[in-house]
Amino acid sequence: MYKLSGVTKNYAKGRQTVAALRGVDLMVEDGEWLAIQGPTGHGKSTLLQILGGLDRPSSGIVDFDGRDLAQLRETEVTKVRATSIGFVFQTFNLIPTLSAQENVESALVPLHTSATVRRQRAAVALDAVGLGDRLRHLPGELSGGQQQRVAIARALVKEPKVLLADEPTGNLDEDTRDEIIGLLETMWRDRGLTMVLVTHDSAIARRAQRIGVMKNGRLSFRRVRTQPSVPHASAARADLGPLDEEDTDDLQPPDLPIAEASSGDFLSGP
User: How confident is the model at residue 53 (pLDDT cuts 50, 70, 90)?
Assistant: First the structure.
């Protein structure tokens, strides 16, 4: 799925250069669940953005299914994001003036799917996350857990190969957190997804097959585990012991094409 080689990312800060990533090497297998932890400001956000094609490295190779995202034209990267990568963020990023169904439909607009098919697929996706009776509700009429379920449905409605999640339970209470992570784990297992999840919650990280730790722009692996219910048996790992809890920073997602859709896109679609 992913093969990163010598990936660096530098930012200019005044007259100084800040190294966000320092020679990151990473392989993520098809169907694997990787959790990433680490102190605030040490590169987790940058790594997730580069995996999602939201940012480009300063150097190195970001191989995604045989294509180097670092070398693709922006139009090609946009197509990869639209078809193959789903995003779930801590702050949900739902469009407040659109219903739950319309928010989910927004992920299909870049694919030029007909309005009828969009509505049908969005309804099925919402039903899969337990919101089949909330299709017409606005985000403000839903609880935090329900809003995150809508965001998960939006990420998965296009049937992506990989799901990238930034603190998906960070704004939720403990009970709702457990429901949402359970839902994500079920979707990962049943759909054979590849999932990369940034979290500060060690209880969540321990459920992943591997745990990576970002520190000073470098990636190491603190813990791996055996996961009995994996989409692909080759992804199973050996348990090397407990993980100490780490702080993590909030990923502030760049503007995505789907977030710019308006209600007119759904009313005027083919």
Answer: very high
- Helix, strand, coil percentages in the chain from 3-state DSSP, rounded to 5: 35, 25, 40
Token readout for 40 is 């605030």
Helical (H) or strand (E) element with 215: strand 210-215
pLDDT at position 231 over 90: no
- The string of pLDDT tens digits covering residues 77-124 is 999 999 999 999 988 999 999 999 999 999 999 999 999 999 999 999
pLDDT tens-digit map of 123-180: 999 999 999 999 999 999 999 999 999 999 999 999 999 999 998 988 899 999 999 9
Q: Is 112 left (phi over 0), alpha (psi -120 to 50) or beta?
A: left
This prediction's pTM? 0.81
Q: How many residues does the chain have?
A: 270
- The 8 Å CB, 24+ separation contacts for 101-104 are 101/126, 101/135, 101/136, 102/263, 102/266, 103/139, 103/150, 103/151, 103/154, 104/150, 104/153, 104/154, 104/157
- Domains of the chain, first to last: 2-267 (3.40.50.300)
243 in Cβ contact with 211 (< 8 Å): yes
User: Cα(22)–Cα(144) distance, rounded to whole angstroms?
Assistant: 36
Residue from 128, 191, 126 nearest 160 by CA: 191
Backbone angles phi, psi at 213, to 5 degrees: -125, 125
> How far apart are the C-alpha atoms of 97 and 87, rounded to whole Å?
20
- Where does residue 127 rank: exposed (0-12), middle (13-18), buried (19+ CB within 10 A)? middle
For residue 121, how many C-alpha atoms fall within 13 Å in the half-sphere facing its CB? 20
Which helix (H) or strand (E) segment is 205 a member of? helix 202-205
